[in-house]
Design brief:
Strand order of the largest sheet: 7-4-6-5-9-8
Radius of gyration: 31 Å
CATH topology of the largest domain: Molybdenum Cofactor Biosythetic Enzyme, Chain A
Number of domains: 4
Mean pLDDT: 95
Largest sheet: 6 strands, mixed
Low-confidence stretches: none
CATH superfamily of the largest domain: MoaB/Mog-like domain
Number of helices: 7
Helix content: 10-25%
Shape: elongated
Structural class: alpha/beta
Distance between the termini: 29 Å
Strand content: 25-35%
Length: 399
């Protein structure tokens, strides 16, 4: 057997690096920037009001309450055509440019309108700059907005829009094909015949790809036919940045997928010292990574988490390759036997009273997908006897 660390290193070392692209801003959420972004202009571009209220000269509010003459109104999006002279005020809306002569804003809640709106009583003294947004307060021209590798979230997209960026240089989102093979697999509803099972791996893997922000491509389900499998695999590697298959990777398997991949690719068939997901195939077909994941549904998902996810994130230019890990208190006995492997136990993680806890999600068989669906973490059990109730355990968080 090969260690988890060595198997992971083998995969990561052979995956191609990220590819940069100019991506429309609307499609950039979740991508990592491939170049640093600098501000071409000041944000905000002009001094403006942070409140609905009155633009005033701060010196005119000394000794408040004071009454000032209202000489105009400035709305957001308008150009001020009025000046604030001594003893005067201008009604102003949030975001509106500050009129000449004003150096402060009094929020409307601290004023009283008098004389039918021709005057206003300012109830408080305010300092210069009160409730003002100054030019370049957020960004100055030439400021570095985001460094290389910044993962763009909704707030980042808003910042880019605010400086006039409509396309961003980012590491391209990988396209990942998912292929199922096997005469025993069926899709959809209807009664199963003896020996048939419904294909659960393809929907699960496509869901995992969608969750992590890469583009999943459904390559469909192919029967156990060598020629059809080769056509499907070649089609996948010609249109995708990586391909995932499931099943036919165990030592005892004689599977057409294995036959085809050995013929058209540079593959390595591994037995990794983990449970579940011991069998793993990985290699390149025409330079495109192909992951041969185990056929049991839980094993397929765990193998994806440990190998495909970090590799695909690296291909997307991400430096944070893995899901977070936490220390939790076991609420059940998480026992195992010594077998030379690291075990990954499906658990439900909860937090309360300042602590983090992990309890079994249910059946731990590699075919028991219901417990995997309920799990919010994988408890990591090194070789040995496992963890007793009340002991601390490391947990890889899911979702």
């Amino acid at each position: 057997m090969i260690s988890l660390t060595d198997a992971r290193a083998y995969v990561l070392d052979r995956c191609p690096g990220p590819v940069t692209a100019e991506v429309p801003l609307a499609e950039a959420r979740g991508l990592a920037t491939s170049v640093a972004v600098e501000a071409p202009e000041a944000v905000p571009p002009f001094a403006n009001s942070a409140m609905d209220g009155f633009a005033v000269r701060a010196s005119d509010t000394v000794g408040a309450p004071v009454e000032l003459r209202v000489v105009g109104t400035v709305a957001a999006g308008s150009v001020p055509d009025v000046e604030v002279s001594p003893g005067c005020a201008v009604r102003i809306m949030t975001g509106a440019p500050l009129p000449v002569g004003a150096d402060a804003v009094v929020m409307v809640e601290r004023t009283q309108s008098v004389g039918g709106g021709d005057a206003v009583v300012v109830e408080v003294e305010v300092p210069e700059g009160n409730h003002l947004r100054t030019i370049g307060e957020d960004l100055q021209p030439g400021d570095q907005v985001f460094s290389v590798g910044t993962v763009l979230g909704p707030g980042h997209l808003g910042v880019l829009a605010s400086i006039g960026v409509d396309r961003v240089a980012a590491w391209r989102r990988p396209r990942v094909g998912v292929l199922s093979t096997g005469d025993e697999l069926v899709d959809g509803v209807g009664p199963l015949e003896i020996g048939q099972i419904r294909d659960s791996n393809r929907p699960s893997l496509l869901g995992l790809l969608d969750e992590m922000g890469v583009t999943g491509v459904d390559l469909g389900r192919v029967a156990d036919d060598e020629e059809a499998i080769e056509v499907a695999l070649r089609g996948g590697v010609s249109t995708c940045d990586a391909v995932l298959t499931s099943g036919g990777v165990s030592m005892g398997d004689f599977d057409y997928v294995k036959v085809v991949l050995d013929r058209i690719g540079d593959m390595r068939w591994m037995q990794v010292a983990i449970k579940p997901a011991k069998p793993l195939a990985f290699g390149l077909v025409d330079g495109v990574p192909v992951f041969g994941l185990p056929g049991n549904p839980v094993s397929s998902m765990v193998s994806f988490e440990l190998f495909a996810r970090p590799a695909l994130r690296a291909m997307a230019g991400r430096s944070d390759l893995d899901r977070p890990r936490v220390r939790a208190i076991a609420e059940d006995d998480l026992r195992r036997r010594t077998d030379g492997k690291v075990h990954f136990v499906r658990v439900v993680v909860s937090t309360r009273d300042g602590g983090t806890y992990a309890s079994s999600a249910g059946g731990q068989g590699s075919h028991q997908l219901t417990a995997m669906a309920a799990a919010t973490g994988l408890a990591v059990l090194p070789d040995g006897n496992g963890v007793a109730e009340g002991d601390e355990v490391e947990v890889l968080l899911l979702g």
